[in-house]
Amino acid sequence: MPIAPGETAPDFSLPGAGGETVSLAALLGHKIVLYFYPKDDTSGCTLEAQGFNGLADAFAAAETRVIGVSPDSVKSHDKFRAKYGLTFPLASDEAKTMLEAYGVWVEKSMYGRTYLGVERTTLLIDREGRIARVWPKVKVPGHVEEVLEAARALA
Question: Least buried of 117, 118, 141, 143, by fewest C-beta within 10 Å?
Answer without folding.
Answer: 141
